[in-house]
Amino acid sequence: MSENEWQKLCSESDLKESIPAAFDLGKNRVLAVRQGTIVHACGGKCTHYGAPLEQGFLRGHILTCPWHNAKFDIATGKTKAAPALTHLKHYETRIEAGDVYVRPIAAPSPRIRPETAGQTILILGSGAAGNAAAETLRDEGFAGRLILISPEDALPYDRPNLSKDFLAGKAKPEWIPLHSRKFYDDRNIQFIHGKATAVDVAARTITLDSGEKLSWDRLLLATGARPRPLSIPGANKKGVFLLRSRADSEDIVKALEGARSAAVIGASFIGLEAASALRSRGLEVCVIGPESIPLGKVFGEQIGAWLQGIHESQGVKFHLGRTPVEVTGGDSVEGIRLDDGTLVTADVVIAGIGVTPVLDYLPAAGIVSGNAVPVDSCLRTSLDGIFAAGDIAAVPYAPIDRRIRVEHWAVAQRQGQHAARAMLGSKEPFGEIPFFWTRQHEMSLCYLGWAAAYDRIVFRGAFGKEGFLAGFYEKDTLRAVVSLRRSTDLNILGELLKDGIAVSPDLFADEKTALQSLLPEKK
């Protein structure tokens, strides 16, 4: 039977109202949802990392992935929010004699906007925001010249994986690029390798480090951030690395051949993920950081101490409350000397001590403020035709009524998608709740919201390795949520945050109250 013919998927009785269910159809996994008299059907695996979408959270037509918060429209299969960028396969459905039949629907071609055919959009940066913007522009029908200016001589890639599976040796190199060269060629997305050195607002040009000048009708600034260098004696020795780019990660992997020990400077997300990956390779690993509890400021002391305990149970050693003062050894690293005189042995050193936004090409433009580029709710800067997204952008955040700058992958992707639509005339305000995840020792912690200031952490249910939900409150107002294996509740709380619906600390802690009951129905 041809895949394009009608095929029985399931019995109608297998489907409960608005409850996602997944079924195998040959080699494909198909998700089906009955809503009234209509059955929707689309691909059953998230196009980001393959999560089972039947475990996701459905509100109206929008299904949220249970792993990394990607969103899809089940009525069309279209992705609505990153980190998934590729649409789901979409199926036509019919019901006959109590059975549900499906057949694939060919993906529609983008609606071309002929008025854009003579225009040029430049995107500075091919990271999360820049790549997502380029894909979205073509998906939304932009017909003009589209150029990605990339500081790296590589196709856009999955940066979050670098400190996780790729560093651990579990992800093949061919998995790291987001798409093939053919993908970009088919969409007529042009790449230029280089860095911007200046933006001429009046002439609407940028100058590259090669001296080349490029003109633009609209310009997206998405230059991201660069890692802070390790500035201590010996930091230039062989075997000392920063971890930001694909090239960084590849160099580290090569250096690990024959290595027995590694030191990670910085108890950040990158640092702890790297420690987990290195430990899975069997290396002796230590983490050095000035804080008393890793990630204590972000997750709170209780969760931070618990996470440290997980690492220690896997053999990772910590030197906290300490700073490195010297990299020891000859031409190659042999160890790290700490401020208390302790000498930590290491064949490889990875420094993850934060990043700084890349803004050095913008002074003459006059749009930098407070180490960021302020934008409005449509990601527009104060200059006509110039937009900004990702690590450099300070974006309005309605729950606290101020701009925030967020350094997370999915956030940058979503901002890039939104900026692309705004460049094509959309006036819809950016309203996404920040989301990020970290995976350490096979545990994925997910964070939704923004809690730069909080005075109370409330737990829903038991706290521990089997799963928990933690609410971060500022004066009894929920600002953020951290989840381990509680994805449905996390996604419901994300919707409540987005809709501005209050969840009191007592209500958050009360397991007898179904969180979904707090959400108004969305058609």
Give a short synopsis of this structure:
By secondary structure, this protein is α/β, with parallel strands linked by helices. It folds into four domains: 7-105, Rieske [2Fe-2S] iron-sulphur domain (Rieske Iron-sulfur Protein, 3-layer Sandwich); 114-226 and 357-423, FAD/NAD(P)-binding domain (3-Layer(bba) Sandwich); 240-353, FAD/NAD(P)-binding domain (3-Layer(bba) Sandwich), CATH 3.50.50.60; 451-518, FAD/NAD-linked reductase, C-terminal dimerisation domain (Enolase-like, domain 1, 2-Layer Sandwich).
Which key phrases capture this entry?
6-stranded antiparallel β-sheet, 4 domains, Rieske Iron-sulfur Protein, FAD/NAD(P)-binding domain, alpha/beta, 523 residues
Rg: 24 Å
Instruction: Compute the number of structural domains.
Output: 4
Termini separation comes to 36 Å
- Fraction of helical residues: 10-25%
Strand and helix map with partners:
Blueprint: E1 7-11, E2 21-25, E3 28-35, E4 38-43, E5 57-59, E6 62-64, E7 71-73, E8 79-81, E9 90-96, E10 99-105, E11 120-124, H1 128-139, E12 145-150, H2 165-168, H3 181-186, E13 189-193, E14 196-200, E15 205-208, E16 213-215, E17 218-221, E18 225-227, E19 240-242, H4 246-255, E20 261-265, H5 269-280, E21 284-289, H6 296-299, H7 301-313, E22 317-320, E23 324-329, E24 333-338, E25 343-345, E26 348-351, E27 355-357, E28 373-374, E29 386-388, E30 393-397, E31 402-404, H8 409-423, E32 435-440, E33 443-449, E34 456-460, E35 468-474, E36 477-484, H9 487-499, H10 505-509
Helix pairs in contact: 1-8
